Every structure is written in C-alpha cells, then in structure tokens.
Amino acid sequence: MPDFTPFFVSGLATAATYVLSAVGIVVLYRASGVVNFSQGALGALAAFVSWSIVEHGGPEPVAWFAGILVSTTLAFLYGRVLAARLAFSDPVMRAVATLSVALILLGFMGYVWGEAPRRLRLPTDTMSFELIGVRVTGTRAVAFALAVLATVAVMTFLARSRLGLQMRALANNRDLSAMLGVRVLRADGYAWIISGGLAGISGILLADLQRLSGQTLTFAVIPAIAAAVIGRFSSLPATVAGGVAIGVCEALLTPVPVIGPFRTAVPFLFAVVALLWMQRRFTFAYR
Amino acid sequence: MAEQALAYSLPVDTRTVRLKWMVAALVALAAIAVLPEVLSNYWLRTFISATALAIGSLSVSLLFAQLGMVSLAQYGLLGVGGWFALRISHGFGVPFELALLTGGIVAAAFGLVVGLPALRMRGLYLAIITLMMAGAIQVLISAFGFPDGGAGFLGKSTAARIMMARPHLAPTDEAYFRYAMVVLALCYGVVFLHVRGRPGRAWAMIRRSEVCALAGGVHIVAYKVWAFTLSGFLAGIAGGLLAGGVGQLDGSAFPASQSILLFALTIVGGAYSWMGPIIAGLMLRAFPALLNDFHVDGNIATIVFGAGLLHSLMTAPQGMAGQIQDVAAALRKRFAGKSGAGR
Fold this sequence. Notes:
The complex is a heterodimer. Chain A is mainly alpha-helical.
C-alpha cells in the first residue's frame, strides 16, 4: 500500500487550478450562455507570455500580471467582438466557435514557442512548510488559497453586487432582462473579463505545477469542463466539489500500478456519471 | 384540388439530375485512373491519407448534417478502428478487407457507446461528452500504443516494427490510392443510400422536431443509435485505411486536438454537401503538405483552420462546398442568361 498523503496534497493543488478554470467557465455560461472551450488555451497563452517575459529578464510580478492581462483582454475582445455576433445562434454553435479560438491559440503557441519541455518557475516553489507530515510547497498553498478566494469572491459578487444580480438575471432569461433594462453587452463583457482573468491565473499555476506545454494546458480545459458539468453549469459549490474530486482522484491514482497510466480519463468518467445521474428521468424528446 | 395537383410539378428536372450523376461518376473514374499516375511519391502518400480522412470527415458530417449532432471524438474513433485493424491483421494474418471491416465494426461499437448517453442529451452536452471521450481515447492510445507485430494482446514488438499487410489487389502506392478512392466511393454510396432512404427521412424528421417525429411513429432511439453506429463504422474504416496506407500508426498521432480539427474542417469544407468531406480531407493532409513544400511551419495550418471555422460559423454555414456551389450557380445563371438573350 503506497503512501497516498503526498499525492493527496499535490492533487489538491492541481484541483485548485481546475476549480479556478471551472468557476470562470460557469460564471461565463451563466451570464452569456457560452461554454468556453478555449479557457485552457487562454491560460496556456498567459503562462507562455509570463515565461517569455521572465526569460528576457523582466521582473516576475510584471510577467504574471502581463500574462493575466493578455488572457483577460483576449477573452474580452472575443466576447465583445466575435461572440456577440453569434449571440443568436445555437448554444452548440456558440461553444464550437470557442473551439476555433482554441485552435488559433494552439497553432500560434506551437508556432512561437514550440513543444519543447518547459516549466514555468514561480518563486513560491522554493518556499515550503510541513503539514500533516507532508512538505507543501508555497505554490501549492497559493494555488489552494487562490481557488478558495476566487470562489468566495465570485459567489459574493454574484449574490451581492448589482452587476452580479444582472448576470443572474441574464442567466435566467436573456430577453426579459434586456427588456427590463439590463445592459446585456456590458454584463457579458464583465463575465468574459472574469473568466479570462481566472483562465490566466489557472494557466500560470498549472504551468508551474505540471508543465508548460500548449497541448497539455489547452486540454486542461477538459477536467475544468467536467467540473462545470458536475455543477450543471450553474451551481458554483457543486462545481468546486467536482473540481476537487476530479483533481484529487487523478492524483491519488498516480501510484496505483495498473490503472495509473489511465488516470487522465478520470474527468470523462466523472462527467459521464454526472450526466447520466442528472438525466435519469425518462425525457428524451426535445422540441 | 385537381388544379392544385396539376399545378404541382417536379422542382428538379430528372434528366439534368441523371446527367449530373453521370458526370460525377465519370469525373470520379477519371480521378481514379489519372491521379495516381501524375503524383510524386510524397504526394501519393499525402493523397492516400487525405482519402482516408475524407471518410473520417464523412462520418462527422453524417451526424452533423443529418441530426445536428456535434461529435468531437471522431478522430479518436479513427484511432480505435486503426488499432483493431492492425491487431487483427498482425495477429491472424487475415486479408486486408477483413481487417478493415473488423476495425469498422469495433469502432461502430464504440460509436454506439458514445451514442447511448447521447440519446438523452441535448447538443451541447453531447459536444462536451464527446470532447472528453476524445481525451480519454487519447489516453488509452498513448498508453497502449498501436500493435506492430509483437506478441500478446497489445502486440507491441520490441524489435523492428512490422508493416501492416496491404490488400492483395493493391500492393503498390498507386494501386493503394485507387483502392482507397474506391472505398471512399463505397462509403459515399452507403451514406447516400441512407440519406435517400427511410433512415434519411426519419433523421430529417428528428432534426426538425423530436416531438413530431415521436408523434409520427419514428423510432427516435433506434434511428439515433443507427446514425451513431454508422458514423463510428465509417470512422473505423477510415482508421483501417490510414493504417494500411502508412503500414503502421503512431500512438502520439491521435490527440484530442485532431478530433477538434476534423470537426472544424468538416464545417469549413461544408457538412451539408457531398463535396465537404473531400475538401476537409484534402485540407487536413494536403494543405499542411503544401505548406511543408514551401517550408512554412505546420502550426500555421492550425491557425488558418481555426480562423476558417470562425469564418464558417459566422458567415458561411454551408462551408466552402456551399460557396463553390453558389459560384457555380451564379456562373450557370449568367451563361443561361446569355444564351437566353441570344435566342
């Protein structure tokens, strides 16, 4: 029986990045009805931008800030310019359109940075402390803290602020909210900004915790979307629980002999079970 | 009532339709005869892959155009088909055709597994679940690798990799390209028979409204499952054909991003037209090869494809095939107008 505690701790940190990404996806879906498949690619871009700035001798805080700024700006521009033009098409088509962003970013990152094995180094990597007999690096603690902070902040924002109220109204009924004077594009824009920022933070952390690779980070959107599916794209607590469960399960399977190599299929299994559970009632005819 | 019945006439002239079919068949025969002779070795191999991927794209467009379903796992199913075709070919030394069929049937079973949860899912959830499935297949394939003549169930050899046996009919590259084009034509035939026949009508009704289809006595579950199975079968055939063309498959060549690209290019090529899958296959393989000829990075192709998808979704839902047909229609109108004025 291997010792699972270190894997549990590292799993919590990975789970935190999934949670950050998933919270962004859920907020965006609630406000604008777009499932953003490019969340991972935006995070990857943020990580690459930070890495490049640090490589060229730039100060690290500026690098992280620039990375997050790039992903936020790009998300906002896409939401305001392109997604707005697709606002009246099918939800599937709006989600598929974000795939094209993921493809463009994937190609761009492959062209500029290539797939050489890299890792983004954060200064928190060298700090560490002991917890329940396991060494916890600063980055893992920061990732966990940021995930908690972001979730609480977003939940309070949606529950208390006027803009949050407008976003919830949009989620409920877009046409009626527009008629009652909610400025749809403004609320949409803020939702894209929040989700882009969260994507950037999550990407930078994941590039440190795992590795800095366009393909890997882009498809880190799969566990995040699985977490969002568990939260039915509406409930943030359920999303967080899903993200944590997926991240921790993945990490705990690492030392298990036979199924270890297949641990990245965990999100798929979670999402399938969640979907089947949600749709257990016998209603298959849609208008 | 009688007047109405008299006023009704066939919207299309049967003679021109028959002519069109004959022209299409002649062009296809000419392509099969001439194309392999004029291509260099490199381009021959590119076109073999492009033909296989056209079948893969056909499987995507079948689901998308007939039922409006977005499946992002088709390239993964291609890998599944290729895996089983290689396995059966290496393990039992069966003829190529049998290996191809086995790959198709196993991939069809996999497609069925995707299809079953999809029966209760709206479009968006189907897209999500198939994307995850593509990720899961990527994990499986990169963990197992493709069989290459070794012993055991996985068939991984530690020594030199053995190539998959080509069909007896088509041992050379030229012949194999012809063979692949014939298989493509057969796949098109199967799809056309379905679309023109009872399943096509049922799919059209389900696409329009599931409630109406149910009321009209269409067995929704059976026809949806059948679409998924058929689409999986086509993807499996494409995988087997790809494996036969190269002789072996690379475990790292089936990432989830390829499934997304295949879907994107099917939309860009035009999912609603017969031309679309062929355009998609050519773009997936021939376009990067062309860039390679000009020493341009292959990643540029991905950027172009992403931009193309965005463009198609926003302004050209019929894809490139639709645009080609529009241009052709405009030209025809112009010429018809001129000849009409001359009369």
